[in-house]
Structure formats: C-alpha cells, structure tokens
Design brief:
The protein is α/β, with parallel strands linked by helices. 35% of the residues lie in helices and 22% in strands. A hairpin with a 5-residue loop joins strand 4 and strand 5. The protein is globular.
C-alpha cells in the first residue's frame, strides 16, 4: 500500500539504501490510483530506475492532482494508463507478483436512464508485466468501529463526529486525521496528529 511504501522510503533516507530496497522488489512497478500518494509512489519508483505504469480508473480530467505535477510525472518517464481498471493481481510460479490484469473503461448508459457511468469495455483485457503493485486508492470508512464501540457517534460519511477541541461523543476521547476529516494526504494527517497532541496536552494540563 502507498502509505507503507512511502514510509519505508522516508526511513531509508540515503539513496544507496533506497536502491538496495528497490532491488528487492524487482524492476517493474504498477501503481493503482489517481491522487498525490499514487503520483509520489510512481515518481519515487522512477528515481530508483524502476519501469513504472500508473493505472488510473478514469479520464485525465478526473485526477485530484495539479496538472503541472502530473506533467512532471510524465516527463520523468511514468507510463500513464487512463480510463483503465485493474481487475486482478496475477501471481507467478514463485508466489510473487507476475502481472496485473486490466480492462479499458468507457462511459455507457446500460439502462437508458440518462445516468452515464464508467464501465469496463468487453474484450479489452490486457496483462501488464510487473514485479510489484502499489495500491494508492480504495480508502473507505471503518465499519467495524460503530459495532465495536456503539457509543462512539459517527457521521453519515463514516467519519467520527466531534465537537469543540475534537472531542468525540465519548468522554475524554478526541479524534484526528482521516478519521475526523475523511481521506486526505499524509501531510494533512501528520499535521493533524501534531495539532491533536498539543490539544490533548492543553486539555490535560489546563482542563
């Protein structure tokens, strides 16, 4: 997953260590996603001399990335497959990743309701040879929390409800990061963590 990969790369700050780590995962990488985490992973892999394919399940206009950053990724040699959906991660004989199966997407109105949606195009399957797949999408709300903690109030979008000072419906329990705001970037999550740490400290010392 993108967060794990980026964390490993941050810990391995020296380029020599990063290149050694990259050698363990092969020479080809496929990144699934259309956000900054996906682009960060793809560009970092290119700088480690991996062949990188970025798989985007929508048009270029649907990207949550500034166009200038996107173009820089292209200039670095990232191959971008827009309007493409990853359908299966395929294994090799050595129980490693052997490839990723994809299908082309196009807009269709299958029920003639005027509601156009992106759907896989029949008979457009292709297999991209890759040694590793980095997933930078698929975040969704944690449905286990409401069941495990019934008294913890949630919002309709799956985030945790909070009042002033990020206080939840549970006494003395605060919330921060994606759990409070929804899916965002790693930078925002880190900033939120630092802010909530100061908030907790003030709460404990000042009441």
């Amino acid at each position: 997953y993108a967060e794990e990969f980026l964390m490993e790369m941050n810990l391995l700050s020296e380029r020599a260590l990063r290149e050694r780590f990259a050698g363990l995962i092969g020479k080809r990488c496929a990144v699934i996603g259309k956000n900054y985490s996906a682009l960060d992973c793809a560009r970092l892999c290119r700088r480690l001399n991996l062949e990188v394919t970025l798989i985007v399940d929508g048009p270029d206009s649907d990207l949550s990335i500034h166009s200038a950053d996107w173009e820089q990724g292209r200039e670095e040699g990232i191959k971008i497959l827009a309007m493409t959906q990853a359908t299966e991660i395929m294994g090799s004989d050595g129980f490693q990743v052997g490839g990723i199966k994809c299908a082309s997407l196009d807009y269709a109105d299958p029920h003639s309701t005027g509601q156009w949606e992106l759907l896989p195009v029949p008979e457009t399957d292709q297999v991209i040879d890759t040694d590793v797949v980095i997933i930078a999408q698929g975040h969704r709300k944690n449905t286990a929390l409401p069941r495990a903690i019934p008294d913890l109030r949630s919002n309709a979008n799956g985030t945790i409800w909070f009042a002033q000072k990020q206080m939840t419906s549970l006494a003395h329990v605060m919330v921060a990061g994606d759990a409070a705001t929804g899916v965002s970037t790693v930078v925002h999550a880190l900033a939120s963590g630092k802010w909530i740490a100061q908030t907790v400290d003030n709460y404990l010392t000042q009441g």
